[in-house]
Amino acid sequence: MSYPRRPNLYLSEEHVDLRTVIAKFVANKILPNVEGWEHDRKIPPQLYEDMAKAGFYSLRASEPGEDLERKYLPTLILCEELGKCNSLGVALTIMISIDYALSLLDIYGSDFLKATFLKPALRGKAIGAIALTEADCGSDLTQINTRATKSGSHYIIRGSKSFTSNAPISDFVTVLARTSNHGALGLSLFVVPTELAGVSIGPALNKLGLHPSATAEIFFDDCEIHDSHLLGQKGRAMQYLIPHFSLERLIVAALAIGACEHLIEMALNYGMSRKVFGAPILGHQIWRHRLANWLAKLEALRGLTYQAAYLLGIKDPSAHQFVAMAKLQSAQVAQEISRDILQLHGAYGQMQESPIERYFRDLAAFSVGAGTSEIMCEIIANSSLERISF
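RESULT FIELD:
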């Protein structure tokens, strides 16, 4: 039984066709292999090349004169369909490789950086990561300690980064480092090859969920890098990162939408076939009403997420507030739906061979990654209060 999809006012026929292509790819190339990738806690390199050949890496890649930041809808569609692949760890790893690690490089990278790093990545031949968080600062990036000190035509990078997704499998990493003591204006971004002398990556960390998404610490011990690896302008990192964070948060929200849609499909199939006291589970009022709430909350989340994407596309001043709303709601709604559907499946839902318990574990990270729910509340409240005169 498939999810009862509604028309979406933001999507064209071209978008609908794109969804069909992506859904077929997920069904043929990802779903049959997910259990093995979960067991191995990694994705084979061939998948990245297959996705590149299918055109998924170029959904937002820019052409000369093209406004990359307006191209959010294809990314949302890709995320929704990937969210149904029974492993959000696989889905997230793909999106980190396709978007998190490449969007800044595509927008602000020099011809040298694009030729060296972006071009092979868009062919699925190289994997990137983005390293921002440190052990002593996560949400407040202005307090980072990693430094890049100018030395002639080079920078010497010293410090470490924590919880860097894709780190163990990355060929290059975009690193946030302090280049002066001028607060947020003293932060810069560098694209660093992970094979460079002075760069070392710790072992993959054991996490509650998202197992195929390899996460590790990165250490920079007097790593010397040419100043041509500076991404954009010196001291502009936070200016670049703020809109980038909105992209990350939209991706999380869209992955949650796809996950919820898939979970509801599984609940419909199981709830109509499994009988309790002579009637299907979904024939009992308590579960029928829960189903109604799942559907209402999911469609409200979808509408909010696409509205946020639209506002970002037209560069409306309220866009980042709406993105924060979508990110906040995506975690709350998805975690609630996964918890309810885990309960609906009873003992079966608790089994590790069931995708239900995996979604429950994977979605726990959605209220932390790409900005905690608490930070989203602060963004929403502050943005609202700025518009109110007391």
